[in-house]
Predict the structure.
Amino acid sequence: MKAEESNKAEEQPETAAEAAAAEEEAAAAQPETTYKSLLLSAHGGYDKVKLQVKKGSPVPKAGEVLVRVKACGLNFADLMARQGVYDRLPSLPVSLGMECAGIVEELGEGVTDRQVGDKVMVLNRFGLWQELVTIQTNHTFLMPDGMSFEEGAAFLVNYITAYMILFHFGNLRPNQSVLIHMAAGGVGTAAVQLCKTVDNITIFGTASASKHENLKENGVLHPIDYRSNDYVEEVRKVSPKGVDIVMDPLGGTDTCKAFNLLKPMGTLVIYGAANLLTGQKKNIMALAKSWWNQFSVTAMQLISANKSVCGFHLGHLDEELELITSVVSTLLDLYKQGKIKPKIDTMFSFEQVGDAMRQMQEKKNVGKVILIPDMPKEEAEKDATEEAKKDAKSEGKKDAKEETKKDAKGEAKKDAKKDAKKDAKEDAKKDAKEDAKKDAKKEEN
Amino acid sequence: MKAEESNKAEEQPETAAEAAAAEEEAAAAQPETTYKSLLLSAHGGYDKVKLQVKKGSPVPKAGEVLVRVKACGLNFADLMARQGVYDRLPSLPVSLGMECAGIVEELGEGVTDRQVGDKVMVLNRFGLWQELVTIQTNHTFLMPDGMSFEEGAAFLVNYITAYMILFHFGNLRPNQSVLIHMAAGGVGTAAVQLCKTVDNITIFGTASASKHENLKENGVLHPIDYRSNDYVEEVRKVSPKGVDIVMDPLGGTDTCKAFNLLKPMGTLVIYGAANLLTGQKKNIMALAKSWWNQFSVTAMQLISANKSVCGFHLGHLDEELELITSVVSTLLDLYKQGKIKPKIDTMFSFEQVGDAMRQMQEKKNVGKVILIPDMPKEEAEKDATEEAKKDAKSEGKKDAKEETKKDAKGEAKKDAKKDAKKDAKEDAKKDAKEDAKKDAKKEEN
């Protein structure tokens, strides 16, 4: 249940002579073992998550493995944790991070279900934004062939969340309709893909207008610009009775709107309070507003409307590993069948963690924001060689290079598109302002 | 959407000469056409539902059929309606009754999906406790071969309710656990049978001790006597984490207990407030108590516990006929496969409606309480002959007779068992009291 925080090599003496010898040998090859860790030192703004270089290497305990982390996923819970509004965190300082992907480098005592060299995805309540982590094996999931580390780091939290909301609580069935807020975000993208695995689902997705093209490509038949339109009205234009499922990561008044927008027998799943995140720091006004607007429902309201209200938070399911494991198994089958595929928005180095958080908090992302502990060229070469050993056919190296090229191209294209759209928008705004001014003058006359 | 209340033959002039002629002919054969109707004249006790004999015969409008009712089902909503705590009723006087089964006797204009002689089950918000009803065809469902009218009158409300609670809101899956309150009642019996259609469901069922043998026969592994035991404790003994689904027809504090008894990802479905029905008349104290104890839940409580709360009321789904029809179709398949079968507790004549309501309100029933409009011997013969015509092999008559015999035998046996148990219980009580007295005396000394 816990990720290794401290420098075990310094604190704990080795118990076996062999281990000590191996350690020495490793030390000889790599003169000084260090690893990067992103630590939350105090609650507050983006600058409160700091890069620290730790010495030595953590040692996996019985039942644990040591994982060299290649990519980490960013989640809303990390942002809430930074601001001090996430209650599932130990006392500070603490390393953040609920998910990562990497390679098993060492096995703790009694570990038989994982091998050195295994590529794994890791899920934990915190502590995974580090270059090296020790973790119990039942928090690790083997990555399928062809999955990149970035995809691996974008898989667990978003797809488990979307799956359990849609299929466990929502009980999504053919011919139903779903409203997905923040449909271009990590969970949103996963939810849209999962909806597409069921026949004839009408998907409404909210996102700012600049992301609509992307939403349509992903399968959102009705993208809604929540900034310029009332999304309730937009949904009712298409589906007068409302929708069968609303996925609500917003909280506050949007939750009330969602409840009213449900069809009879409809289900509202509240899984966040993104409306709280209005600034870098904990916003007392937003908190107070949210408190007053906090959604509450009575038995009578539910009965007379035939409705269902659910709350979901993966961070509170950490004792339900059996359930989680069965969901991951289903999701990996869908991945192998090509039915779902994580969408990466941007990759940031550990050093750029502030920019990464801003990207997500300001809702600029389309897909997942990823943190990469370290990716100099030599390292990439080395990783590729190690992977090649395991894969025998050295496919890994080629894939990694191609993917990097592809990502770079994709990024460039996307940026160009974004810039073009932004320009167009600004032009439109200017025109609108001028028109408004003219109208105002006319009215004065 | 509406059942025919008034005497159409008297109030509305016939529009076609043929119809008038047919009417006359019918009148000649049956010197005076009358039909029985159970009317709620005012809110209050059992005596407020009165038998009235209406003259003439209601005439089906376009899209409607005239049904000769052979059996009616009794539901909690009828009891609530009598007491004035059911808001889905038009102004008084009104004929009660949400379900019945009978034979189509006449078709309204444009009806092509039903034929004279069809045996049908009927669902409506009210108005079905009458010997003759006119009803839109989409409120009627063809009875499968071999289903008796009593079964037909016990099928729709209970099985639709149990099915939608367990499979739409509850999303019941193999290896889960369910707590069913009032497990020996109409919905409870249906729910137990439906749970048995899924692999390895752990069923907890509450009922008074005298009904436990019956619950076990039906498939309830863990019957709980809620009068002498704390059901929460009893469930936790077997399932320390709680259960996946609680079906709650009780309301008040039991709803809070149910919420706490849910596992993570568990679902509570509230579908009644039987706790309100503490006496014959509307109980102001019970209402007040229920008001103060009214269950209410916030978004934060749901999220931090990963739970779902739903409200269900079939009476509020009367505009969702397409959905209902698809559920009935699934249920009829299960019936034909022998997986579900309505359990009849007792049959009462229309004249005994007060006793019928008392049987249910005092929770004496095991299975469904049925009202029979009229069943003198001659009538039974006639019905059987008419059915024989349609069935060609005259199986109907034999079945009807055999079923009647079987029911009578079953009733007699059950009564004998009940009496024996009651005696045993009273003896046990006496013994216990005497022991207690002795103990008390000893302590005094």
